[in-house]
Write a structure and sequence with these properties.
With 411 residues, the chain is α+β, with helices and mostly antiparallel strands. The chain has 2 domains: 128 residues, Response regulator (Rossmann fold), CATH 3.40.50.2300; 251 residues, Phosphatase 2c, domain 1 (4-Layer Sandwich), CATH 3.60.40. The chain is built from 10 helices and 18 strands. A 5-stranded parallel β-sheet has the order 2-1-3-4-5, with helices on both faces. It has a 5-stranded antiparallel β-sheet with strand order 6-18-17-14-15. The longest helix has 48 residues.
């Protein structure tokens, strides 16, 4: 069946006009239905979908004005274009027709070339609007599915965070985690290797959204303390490890960073890398050994009230410089011997770089002031307060980066 330009309804009480219009429009590729009056027009419109209506005003049964009113109660201008065709050509009639919902107005005797051009324009517009509507509907369906998938992915990602009720012998822990989007590039964890050693880390993948979250998931899985040959954080009977207890060898923080740097080389196509702070806490000695890979230095808050940033070489982010590069430097470590009441706080740069409405960053000094001011409160309350201050600083906007805080307190 040959495809037509569109289907038209011609409403005119003059048989000669109907015949002339139908022949001319059909010759130019339209399918045409003709009716002699308003009642038949309404009946046809109730049964058939048309692309446009060519409507006479003066008819004996139901006037074109009433038919137009009936149409506009059911169809918008975009859904069903109406072109009024009449011998009445006063400015008042033209304005009235447009105010009543007509898309266009032509006068008799009809100039068929002009009429055809106007029909073409309105049919094309109607088809375009319908196509856009369908495309928008499909886009909404797709977007709703994407948002649903992102919500599920975010729930999965956050389900892998440590429990808020975690308790360890010898220390308290607290953490906060606030993605700037549904999915985050930040991740943190603290876990027990055994009765003596705890592992803890916080890392920040560059960028946001799904690509950063996928890399974050891969990194966190790699750091998971599973006893097998591929485990990055600990081994059984491995002589190169830094410490052992109950047959378990705990890999040093610098060794973990170096291994990650080999496993996650920078790929220009993906453009992702990450900063990392990784530590091992010896509960028998109250010693925290940690390394930094391009990450902000931890905060040390002593029970005496003194507060400072840990003095450590920042290192370079994981993946940026391969081991065989002349610029490569080994990751260094810091060992802190802590006393009861001392706290160490890891954090992502989302804390420091949160901006207020004037573009001022939250910064190190505000972070240190918040932690010092809340030193008398519990570790949970202190980290909650720091997060609240950062969010208040950014309000009414959300922070432009993920925010992660991981704190440890010796007792």
């Amino acid at each position: 069946m040959e495809k037509t330009l569109g289907s038209l309804l011609v409403v005119d009480d003059n048989e000669m006009n109907r015949d002339l219009l139908s022949r001319s429009l059909e010759r130019h590729g339209y399918t045409v239905t003709v009716v002699a009056g308003g009642a038949d027009a309404i009946s046809s419109l109730e049964q058939v979908a048309f692309d446009a209506v060519l409507l006479d005003i003066m008819m004996p049964d139901i006037s074109g004005w009433d038919v137009l009113k009936w149409i506009r109660e059911r169809f918008s201008r975009e859904q069903l274009p109406v072109i009024m065709a009449t011998a009445k050509d006063s400015r008042t009639d033209v304005v009235l027709a447009l105010q009543c919902g007509a898309n266009d107005y032509v006068t008799k005797p009809l100039d068929l070339k002009v009429l055809l051009a106007r029909v073409n324009v309105h049919v094309i517009l109607e088809r375009t609007m319908q196509s856009l509507k369908q495309a928008n509907q499909q886009l909404k369906i797709s977007n709703d599915q994407i948002q649903s998938d992102l919500t599920i992915a975010a729930e999965v990602q956050q389900s892998r965070l440590p429990s808020k009720s975690l308790k360890f012998h010898g220390c308290n822990v607290a953490w906060e985690y606030r993605p700037c989007d549904k999915l985050a590039g930040d991740f943190l964890d603290i876990f027990a290797f055994n009765e003596r050693y705890l592992g803890c880390y916080l890392f920040d993948v560059s960028g946001h959204g799904a690509p950063a979250a996928l890399m974050s998931s891969a990194v966190s899985q790699t750091l998971k303390p599973i006893l097998n040959e591929t485990c990055l954080t600990s081994q059984i009977n491995k002589s190169h490890a830094s410490s052992s207890h109950d047959g378990l060898m705990i890999n040093s923080p610098s060794q973990v960073a170096e291994s990650l740097n080999e496993i996650f080389p920078f790929d220009p196509k993906i453009g992702k890398y990450f900063t990392l702070i990784y530590g091992v806490f010896d509960r028998s000695l109250n010693q925290l050994r940690f390394t930094s890979a391009g990450h902000p230095p931890p905060v040390i808050l002593y029970s005496s009230g003194k507060i400072e940033l840990a003095k450590i070489s920042p290192g370079f982010p994981i993946g940026l410089i391969p081991k065989n590069n002349s610029r490569y430097e080994q990751y260094t470590e810091v060992v802190l011997t802590l006393n009861p009441g001392d706290r160490v706080i890891f954090y992502s740069d989302g804390v420091l770089e949160a901006m207020d409405t004037q573009g001022n960053t939250f910064g190190q000094q505000r972070m240190l002031a918040s932690l010092a001011a809340n030193a008398h409160r519990s570790l949970d309350e202190s980290t909650d307060s720091l997060l609240a201050e950062v969010l208040d600083w950014s309000a009414p906007r959300s922070p432009g980066d993920d925010i992660s805080i991981l704190a440890l307190e010796v007792h």
